[in-house]
TrEMBL record:
Residues 804-884 form the PKD domain. It comes from Littorina saxatilis. This is PKD domain-containing protein. Its main location: membrane. Gene3D superfamilies: Immunoglobulins. One of its GO terms (biological process) is calcium ion transport. InterPro entries: Ig-like_fold, PKD/Chitinase_dom, PKD/REJ-like, PKD_dom, PKD_dom_sf. SUPFAM superfamilies: PKD domain (SSF49299). The keyword Transmembrane applies. GO terms for cellular component: plasma membrane.
Length: 1289
């Protein structure tokens, strides 16, 4: 709150001076120079109201009074113009003050901002009053005259300045914000009583002069008063006055030159400019150089804050705070008073007007016929004499705000006529029930339209009545009996005439109804409540009381006699409206259906009983559900329960619903029972597959009766073994065979569950259980490190791999009595010396620091809900604290020796799996320290390379050595499966574990060729009448220790022995292409299922198609058997080549077969020697050797037998001599010489000629071997000596 500055003269002191009339010689505090007052009448209680008073140009005194709410009093001054304006009526007075108005509603109460009288008829003086929210009324009253003006000002945080100047000659002049606003020269008259002439100078009164001590909505400040009428400019000259209206500055305001006016000659250019713009109706004044003045209504675009103005800028002033806009509305409208939709001349019309404000206002209505009315409350009524459209204008004032509105009305000169003069409606009852004949009579001179309303909500428009006294009729049948108000409504162009008639609709028939005992009965009767109360109801001739409802007559159950016919009549006066015969019967109870058997297989006879409780006049109907007609029994009276028995045979499969229905006239009740002829459930097959995804469903497939005739209805109960309630479902099948179904179920947790399924129907039940695994087993783990040798306090990083399994826990035992576990779901886990990081669902890294030196065996275990798998690190972790490293002891020099030589990932060394692998390490010590030896550590990994060239390795634990003293690694045959391996040797001097050299050997382990074997001698002999047997059972894959024939196939090629050498020279593909297939069979069908194929390289068998041979051929237990008679009789001996094949690798063995018709005898000698003469040396020697055995074992006891044998020996020796000439190697020569010695060994049967032939043969052999590369001198000497042996043996 702003406070007054300067000296203050109290009210009492200045009043005393006034009384002493010290006007000319004022002294002390009242003798003050002119002083600009600072306000006090603020908006809050507790502030002060202050006023400065000047007389004759001198400051007389300064007044202060405290505020109570809005009210404050500065006291009475009857001797001064300040308090008594009659004292200065001739010179007048001037009043100036600042004030603020807070927003207030237009309906708010009037309040006086400042006054010293003149508000009421009993006082003179000036007053400033706030009215209608934003209107300020300024008045000066003296005697019977009053000068009064009103202005509207802005409200809110806006300070306005007002000046009031008055004398009786010049009248009243009011200035707003230093600008002269209006002048009232001519006073108005007022009601005036005897005046007290002088009143208190106060603020905060209502218009009745009562103090306003409540909260304040205005503030008054800097009040000054002079004892002469002055121009408003006198107050605006006060210091800082105009700066309050300076709002902004503009340096480049767009001002047209023709609008600029000069105010340089004015004493106050700023006031002059603002006055000029006010007179021109503008809100903003622009002043530059205290000379150029222009006016505007919109702030310039480049306006800046006024405290940054310079002399060259346009100073933008607000002209004043006067407003003229408002939002008040006046509404006007009319309303007809005739009750018609038109108004005729001379008839009153109601006129209304309102501004929707809670204010006492007067409204002036100006009619276009020249009349007007003033009223404070509408409506007013006015009649126009002429037809047409008439307008009315309404005006009213809210203070100085004038409101206007218009309304219009249409006046019509209408020819009205009169409504129909007579309408009569009458009704008669027809001979049919509830049928009325309605007659309408109309007497009217005009065409009339009539509508008959039948009283039940329906109506009928009749044809027009054109003639006076015309009659129309209408027949109408009502829905129910009762009384109906029939109305005829007739209209002509001038109005309507009505008539009515009460018609009584009656039922002419008697109705029969059956009613359950204990229930009431309702009869539909129309006519309304009063009518229904007036009717009478008789039962069996006796009048009874009745109830009523909406169009109902209600009777209770006690009205009727049970089990008899009751006559009910409803009457109105003497007319019977309706008649009913009502029979009250008891309700039936539910029968009970039972059967001695309800389900059976294939065919069924059932004894069905139906039990009926006491009843009468009842029908029992039994439907057996088998398409046969139902059984019907009429029960006239049953005082006790009665049972009815039926035997029914059901011969076809199906379910049958037996239904017994008991009914009478008022009720029925049923009971049912299912019986079924069904197929027994004999088997239930349940299958499923394990899943590895917890979100995937387990599919359980169910098959009932396994394809045999199946039940058409099955109840399946499935317990999924997870602790939840078993699920039950009912399934049906329209086929003869039950179709398998699959049920899906999603488990919530990993685990192995027992699923139990029960399939049942009414005659059988079968259950099956099986296991299902939800989740994946752990099938492989691996543990590796690249930092297996470290110094103490260094970290060792282990990589663990577990590519399969769900929800896995990784555990590492570091070998130092510590272990650490990590969950697959936790990305990182830590402890004091260990950190685990899960890199992916299959890989994790463990970092561990050992605290003591040593050799540590590290193991890794992967565990989940199903399995656990452990592996160890190869080799061990070495933690050393000796301080000896490669800097102090150079690592040893290492070379890998042996057949492997250098190797790489792309060019590895190759070794067959069936062969031994031997790797020798040549190493030398380079350490200056004394070293007792070298240690060799081996680790082996299987190197996997996919089609994209990506390489990953897995540890081979079977080849893992740690600190071995041997420099040679020996792996026995079949030690490594097929694949590519990296064997890594780490060599370290004994005692210096961190001084190491490492070498890698890449080794490819490949397949070995299969090994075909035909058991027996090189030459096999079969009798033609016997069985040829080839034992292949020992043939094998040398890479396998068990099941060694797996994946082998056998291909046997047959040919005459003479073609054998040529056949042996061919590759497998070549001989296969050159041979004919005889047939094939499968060996070892229950185990290895080896294919056996038989071919002819050259004709070998009698049957060229091979059909009979393959029928006789047997391969049981690896032995090929068939009758030897199938061999061709054209040849004596045959060659057999056996090829074994496995995955593109092949190998071959052979056998010679001799097929003899019988055991060798002398009778066969001729043909045998003929064969030998034409055979190659090996075959010839073998054939002759057989003949020799036969001759030497023959009986030679008689001279005749000896002579015969001697002849045979001679023939054989001659043939051997021929063969001796054809031998081509030392082996053949040795065999030939041995046979000659054998033939000449028995002197009893050797003739002299035979001895000579034998000697010649030895000579041929001696000569022949002398030129043979594989023969020796001893061979030739031996053969030469043989000729003498035959003579002296």
């Amino acid at each position: 709150m702003r406070k007054a500055v300067g000296l203050t003269t109290t009210i009492a002191q200045c009043g005393l001076l006034a009384q002493r009339k010290l006007m000319a010689t004022r002294t002390g505090q009242c003798l003050l120079t002119f002083f600009l007052l600072v306000v006090t009448a603020g908006l809050a209680s507790g502030s002060n109201l202050t006023l400065d008073y000047n007389e004759n140009g001198e400051h007389l005194f300064h007044l202060t009074a405290p505020l109570s709410g809005c009210h404050a009093s500065l006291g009475k001054f009857p001797h001064w113009c300040l308090g008594n304006i009659t004292a200065c009526a001739e010179s007048g007075f001037s009043l100036g003050f600042w004030f603020e108005l807070q927003p207030a509603d237009v309906t708010s109460s009037d309040v006086i901002l400042l006054t010293n009288g003149g508000v009421t008829p009993v006082s003179d003086g000036f007053y400033v009053m706030r009215r209608y929210g934003d209107q300020i009324e300024v008045g000066v009253a003296i005697g019977g005259n009053v000068w009064r003006e009103t202005v509207r000002l802005r409200t809110g945080d806006v300070s306005s300045h007002m000046t009031v100047a008055w004398n009786e000659a010049a009248g009243l002049t009011v200035g707003i914000d230093g600008v002269k606003w209006f002048t009232d020269v001519t006073p108005s008259s007022r009601s005036f009583l005897t005046s007290t002439k002088s009143q208190e100078i106060v603020t905060g009164l209502n218009r009745f002069g009562h103090e306003v001590t409540s909260s304040c909505s205005f503030g008054v400040s800097q009040v000054r008063m002079l004892n002469s009428a002055s121009d408003p400019e006198v107050f605006s000259k006060e210091a800082g006055f105009n700066e309050k209206f300076l709002k902004a500055c503009s340096r480049a305001a767009s001002v047209a030159n023709e609008t600029i006016r000069s105010v340089r000659l004015s004493q106050s250019p700023d006031i002059a400019c603002r006055q000029l713009c006010s007179d021109a109706g503008h809100t903003l004044a622009l002043l530059r150089h205290n000379d150029d003045c222009s006016c505007a209504d919109v702030m310039p675009d480049d306006a800046i804050l006024h405290n940054a103005c310079s002399f060259d800028d346009w100073h933008v002033y607000r002209v004043h705070h006067v407003i003229d806009e408002h939002a008040l509305k006046l509404r006007a409208w009319t309303k007809m008073t005739t009750g018609r939709d038109y108004t005729k001349p001379g008839e009153d019309v109601a006129f209304y007007a309102t501004h929707d404000l809670d204010l006492d206002s007067s409204f002036t209505f100006f009619f276009d016929d020249g009349t007007s009315f003033v009223t404070s409350a509408s409506p007013i009524y006015h009649a126009f004499k002429a037809a047409g459209v008439h307008e009315v204008t309404v005006t009213t004032k809210v203070g100085v705000i004038e409101l206007n509105a218009t309304a219009s009305v249409v006046i019509e000169d209408v020819d009205e006529g009169v409504e129909p003069s007579m309408v009569v409606v009458t009704s008669w009852h027809d001979d049919d029930a509830r049928v009325a004949l309605h007659t309408v009579f109309v007497a009217d001179e005009h065409s009339t339209n009539c509508t008959v309303r039948y009283g039940d909500g329906t109506h009928l428009k009749l044809p027009s009545f054109a003639d006076f006294g015309e009659i129309r009729q209408s027949n109408y049948k009502y829905v129910m009996c009762g009384r109906y108000n029939v109305i005829a409504e007739c209209n002509n162009p001038y109005g309507q005439t009505k008539d009515n008639f009460f018609f009584l609709a009656r039922e002419l028939d008697t109705f029969s109804s059956y009613l359950p005992q204990g229930e009431g009965f309702n009869i539909s009767v129309a006519g309304g409540k009063e009518f229904l109360q007036s009717i009478a109801v008789e039962v069996n001739g006796s009048k009874i009381s009745h109830g009523i409802g909406h169009d109902l007559v209600t009777l209770t159950d006690k009205t009727f006699v049970p089990a008899t016919d009751n006559l009910v009549e409803v009457k109105f006066e003497d007319a019977i409206l309706t008649r009913h015969v009502i029979r009250s019967e008891r309700r039936v109870h539910k029968p009970i259906v039972e059967s001695d058997v309800t389900a059976d297989a294939w065919s069924m006879t059932a004894n069905i009983t139906v039990t009926v409780t006491p009843c009468d006049f009842t029908t029992l109907t039994v439907d057996f559900g088998n398409s046969e007609p139902p059984a019907v029994v009429y029960v006239q009276e049953a005082r006790d329960s009665v049972t009815y028995w039926h035997m029914v045979t059901y011969s076809t499969l199906g379910a049958y619903l037996v239904t017994a229905t008991l009914s009478n006239d008022v009720s029925n009740a049923s009971d049912s029972l299912w019986v079924s002829v069904e197929v027994p459930i004999t088997s239930l097959n349940v299958s499923t597959v394990n899943i590895t995804d917890l979100t995937s469903p387990v599919g359980v497939t169910l098959d009932v009766n396994s394809g045999a005739a199946g039940p058409d209805r099955v109840i399946l109960t499935v317990d999924y073994g997870d602790g939840k309630e078993p699920r039950e479902m009912f399934t049906t099948s329209d086929d003869d065979v039950f179709q398998p179904i699959t049920l899906d179920y999603v488990y919530s947790y990993w685990g192995i569950y027992i699923i139990t399924v029960t399939a049942r129907n009414n005659i059988s039940s079968v259950s099956e259980s099986l296991l299902v695994q939800v989740g994946m087993n752990i099938s492989f783990v691996d543990l590796t490190t690249t930092t297996e040798r470290v110094q103490l306090s260094e970290n060792v990083t282990f990589e663990v791999i577990c590519p399969t399994g769900t929800d896995v826990t990784y555990t590492l035992d570091f070998g130092d009595r510590t272990s650490f576990s990590a969950q697959e779901i936790n990305p990182i886990s830590t402890s004091n010396h260990t950190t685990a990081e899960i890199l992916s669902p299959s890989t994790a890294l463990f970092t561990h620091m050992y605290t003591q030196p040593g050799y540590y065996r590290v193991s890794f275990t992967a565990t989940n809900a199903f399995t656990s798998m452990t592996t160890t690190l190869c080799p061990r972790v070495v933690v050393d604290d000796s301080g000896v490293t490669a800097f102090t002891c150079p690592p040893p020099t290492v070379r890998l020796l042996g057949l492997h030589g250098n190797s790489s990932l792309t060019e590895p060394a190759v070794n067959k799996r069936s062969a031994e692998t031997r790797v020798h390490v040549q190493a030398s010590v380079n350490c200056p320290q004394k070293v007792t030896g070298l240690h060799y550590s081996w680790k082996t990994v299987l190197v996997n390379v996919n089609e994209r060239g990506e390489v990953w390795e897995t540890t081979v634990h079977s080849v893992c050595r740690f600190q071995d003293d041997s420099s040679t690694l020996v792996l026995p045959p079949r030690a490594l499966p097929y694949g590519l391996y990296r064997l890594t040797v780490t060599v370290a001097p004994a005692g210096y574990d961190l001084v190491t050299t490492t070498q890698d050997l890449y080794l490819q382990v490949v397949m070995s060729e299969p090994v075909p074997i035909i058991q027996g001698e090189e030459v096999a002999t079969f009798m033609r009448y016997g069985t040829a047997i080839f034992d292949l059972s020992q043939s094998r894959d040398p890479d396998l220790e068990h099941n060694f024939r797996r994946n082998l196939s056998f291909h046997m090629f047959c040919m005459p022995e003479s073609d054998m050498k040529h056949g042996e020279k061919l590759e497998y593909g070549e001989i296969l292409a050159a041979s004919a297939v005889v047939g094939n069979k499968t060996m070892f069908r229950m185990t290895t299922k080896n294919e056996f194929w038989l071919y002819e390289y050259r004709p070998c068998f009698n049957d060229t198609s091979g059909t009979n041979l393959m029928e006789d051929l047997n391969v049981y237990n690896g032995k090929v058997r068939f009758p030897a008679s199938h061999f061709s009789s054209e040849h004596f001996s045959f060659g057999i080549l056996l090829w074994a094949e496995r995955e593109g690798l092949v190998n071959m063995t052979s056998q010679i077969v001799e097929v003899r018709t019988s055991n060798m005898s002398l009778d066969d000698l001729g043909s045998l020697l003929d064969l030998a003469m034409n055979a190659d040396p090996d075959t010839a020697i073998r054939l002759i050797g057989g003949a020799a055995d036969a001759i030497l074992s023959a009986d030679s006891s008689s001279a005749e037998e000896q002579a015969k044998l001697a002849e045979s020996v001679g023939a054989v020796v001659d043939t051997l001599g021929s063969v001796a000439k054809r031998v081509d190697n030392a082996n053949q020569a040795t065999k030939c010489a041995g046979t000659i010695k054998t033939m000449t060994s028995n002197s009893d049967i050797v003739s002299q000629g035979s001895r000579a032939s034998a000697a010649g043969a030895f000579l041929e052999l001696a000569n022949g071997t002398s030129t043979m590369e594989d023969a020796t001198v001893d061979d030739a000497s031996s053969f030469a000596g043989g000729q003498w042996h035959v003579f002296f043996s």
